Amino acid sequence: MPSMLRNTGLFMLLLLMSSLSWAHYPVLNCHLSQNPTSGDTVICSASFSDKSLAPNVVIEVYSEDDEVVSQGRTNDDSSYRFNRPQGAFFILMDAGPGHALEISNEEVTGL
Q1: Domains of the chain: which residue ranges?
Q2: pTM as predicted
Q3: CB of 90 closer than 8 Å to CB of 102
Q4: Are 56 and 64 in contact (CB under 8 A)?
Q5: Over its length of 111 residues, how does the chain's per-residue pLDDT go in tens digits?
Q6: Quick check: 85 and 61 in contact, CB under 8 A?
Q7: 9 Cβ partners below 8 Å, 6+ apart?
Q8: Contact 80/46 with Cβ under 8 angstroms?
């Protein structure tokens, strides 16, 4: 009987450790690219904490009045570009249930 309990405990420990190794969270890094002729562009790179890329995830950009000013999906390189909105804005990355992230314009480097 003690051997069975030990095996069950070992199984539970391995199960817990494997589920923790699968846990990851979304990461969104955005920076401003200034261009005097075409205007300022914000370029975002989407990924996960385990360093995997996040292609084809939904990106939405909202004005300070909660109006959608840009929306689309990341490309094959996991990036998304949009024209810099006037005023404050925030960016929402939605990679599925439990994998949503929101950042403000204050978190965009170069602004």
Answers
A1: 24-107
A2: 0.77
A3: yes
A4: no
A5: 454 444 555 555 444 444 444 568 999 999 999 988 878 999 999 999 999 999 999 999 999 999 999 999 999 999 999 999 999 999 999 999 999 999 999 999 998
A6: yes
A7: none
A8: yes
Fold exhibited by the domain 24-107: Immunoglobulin-like (2.60.40)
Strand partners, 42: 32, 82
SS (H, E, C) the chain: CHHHHHHHHHHHHHHHHHHHHHCCCEEEEEEEECCCCCCCEEEEEEEECCCCECCCCEEEEEECCCCEEEEEECCCCCEEEEECCCCCEEEEEECCCCCEEEEEHHHCECC
Residue 95: half-sphere exposure toward Cβ, Cα within 13 Å: 22
Length of the chain: 111
